[in-house]
Automatic annotation (TrEMBL), chain A:
Protein name as annotated: Latexin
Encoding gene per record: Lxn
Species annotation: Glaucidium brasilianum
UniProt-listed InterPro entries: CYSTATIN_LXN, Cystatin_sf, Latexin
A GO CC term assigned to this protein in UniProt: extracellular space
Acetylation in keyword set: yes
GO terms, biological process: inflammatory response
UniProt cross-references to PANTHER family, sorted A to Z: LATEXIN
Intracellular or extracellular location(s): Cytoplasm
PROSITE patterns found in the cross-reference section: CYSTATIN_LXN
Taxonomic path: Eukaryota, Metazoa, Chordata, Craniata, Vertebrata
TrEMBL record, chain B:
Gene giving rise to this polypeptide: Cpa1_1
Organism per entry: Glaucidium brasilianum
Cofactor section: Zn(2+)
Keyword Phosphoprotein: no
Name under which the protein is recorded: Carboxypeptidase A1
Keyword entries, A-Z: Carboxypeptidase, Disulfide bond, Hydrolase, Metal-binding, Metalloprotease, Protease, Secreted, Signal, Zinc, Zymogen
A Gene Ontology term for the protein's cellular component: extracellular space
GO biological process, one term: proteolysis
Top EC class, one word: hydrolase
Amino acid sequence: AAMELPPGLSAASRAAALAAGYICYRRGGPGRGLALRALRRACAEDIDGVGRKYHLELELEDVLDKDSTVNCTAEVLYHLGNKNIAPDVQFTLERELKNADEADNVFYNRIKSLEKELVAENIPDNHGNVSPEMEPIHLLAWVASGYVIWQNSTENTKFQLAQIKHVKQVKRSDEYLEFDYKILLHEMLTQEIIPWQMTVLWHPQHGVEVTRDSRQTKEAPE
Amino acid sequence: LQLDFWLAPRGLGHPVDVRVPFPSLQPLKAHLEANGVSYSIMIEDVQELLDQEQMEMFRGRSQMPVTTNTFNYASYHTLDEIYNFMDLLVAENPNLVSKLEIGRSTENRPLYVLKFSKGGMNRPAIWIDTGIHSREWVTQASGVWFAKQIVLDHENDAGLASILDKMDIFLEIVTNPDGFVFTQTQNRMWRKTRSRQSGSVCIGVDPNRNWDAGFGGPGASGNPCSETYHGPYANSEPEVKAIVDFVKSHGNIKAFVSIHSYSQLLLYPYGYTRTPVPDQKELHEISAKAVAALSSLYGTNYKYGSIITTIYQASGGTIDWTYNQGIKYSFTFELRDTGRYGFLLPAKQIVPTAQETWLALKVIMLHARDHLN
C-alpha cells in the first residue's frame, strides 16, 4: 500500500538525495553536475518480501547554472534484508539536459596536454574556495561520489561529498582520463566524516565510471 | 660571478657591500683570501629574510581592524579576531552593548555573550547562539554580522527598535571556542567539544546531545568516538553548563534560537520524542512566516517542522531542554547550503546568509515581543 508523505519528512528526503546522486552519476561529468533543488512529492510503498519503494517527484538544478532546472520522477527501492545490495533507482527526466560537450572537451584537452600528472589537495579549501581550474575536478568528484553514495546508502543514511582531500591523475596509455581521489563523505544521521578512496575514469563520449572505491579507516583520533 | 653590489666600490679605503649568489660564494671567498682582502658576513641568507618579511607583511595586511566599520564581514575569522571584534563593538556602543563571561571552556577559554539592552532590569530576553558545532563556520560568521546589524539598526529599524524597547538580546557568537580553534589549526571537520573522555582515546562530546532532555536516549551515541556522543552525563560539558546556568539564573528568557549549518531548515522541538509539543500549532505558524521572510530576500528555500519529523531523532538537544524549561519560542536553524559545499560554504555567501537569516530571526523576535504576558 502506498502512503503519501509530506516532502519535509526525513525518510523521503533521504531517498530523494540518493536518487539525485544516482542521476548525477549517470548524467554528469566535469562540465555538468546536477543537484537536488526540491522534493515536490513523495509516496512510500511497502512491497511484501521485497522492500520499500519510494516514488518521488524531484526538481534538479544545474550546478553551474542555478537558473537551469529540470523536473524528474524517480523510484528508489530499498531491498529488504541484505543491506549489501545497493538500492534500485529508476528515473525519467522531463527533458534533455543542456549539452556539456564544449566544457567537457576544454577540460579533456587541458588535462591531456599537461606535462606532469595533475595533483591537488583540499578542494574546496577550508574557506570554501575552488579555483576556476579546479572546478571541473571538483565537479567530476561530485558526479563520481554519486556512485559511491548510491552503492552505500540505506534508508537510514544521507551522504554528501564534504571535501576532496587529495586528487592525483593516473597516467594512462589509452584515451581515458583517470583520477585517484581521496574524499571525505559527510553522513547526516551519524554526523560522521568518512574518508573514502575512489578511482574515477572519464572520457567525453563515455561518461563517468568509478572503477574502484573503498572506505578508508579514519586517522588516529587526536 | 653575478655579484650584486649594494654599496658600490668608491675607492681605496671604502667598504663595499655585495650580495653573492650561492654558486659564486666559494670562488669569491677564494679570490678575496688570495688577495688579502678581509670580509665579514652581514646577512647569512637573504632569501630567509625576504621570506620573513613576506610573512610579516601578510600578517600586517590582516592585522586587527581598529573599528567594526573596517572589519571584513565577508570573510572567515580567527577566534582572536572575533573576540577583538566584540571588544570593539562594546567600546563603540557602550550604551547598548556589553560583554558577559558566562563560563570557561574545557581548555579554559572564556565563553563570551554580548548583551544588547536599552536599559531596564532583567527584561524579558531573546537568546541567540552560533558556533556550538565548531565546523559550521557560516554560523559564527553570521553571529558576528548579527551583532553589527543590531548596532546599526537599533534606532532606525522600527521592528528592532520596538523589540529592544521591551526586551534584551543575548548573543553568544562562539559557543564552542575549543572546537573552533581546533577547526582552524588541526581538523576543519571537528564538530564536538575538546574534553577528554575517561577510558577512551577519543576526545569530545557533541554539545547538542549533552542537554538534559531525553539525555542518553535514542538519537545520541554512547560511544566517545562518535560524532554524536552525548557525554558521560547531562551538562558534563562546561560550554553547555554555562548556558544552562545562565538561562536558569536569568529566569526571563522568552525566545531561544540555536544556529547550526547545513541543510536549510527551521526546526522546533522535539527531537527526542515523537510526541508533539503542546505549542506545535503556534510554532509551526511562526516557522512558516519566518521561512517566508527568509526566502523573500534571495529565494533561498527552507523546510520547517519539528526536529524528529524533519531531520532525525536526536536526544539531549538544546531546544528540547529550553522548551521544557518553559521557553516556548525555541528554534533551531540549519543555515546554507543543502550539501553542495556543506560545511565549507564559500565566504562570499556569509553576508547573504546572515542577511536572510536575520529576517527570519526578526519574525521570531517580533512574535515573542507581541506575546509577552
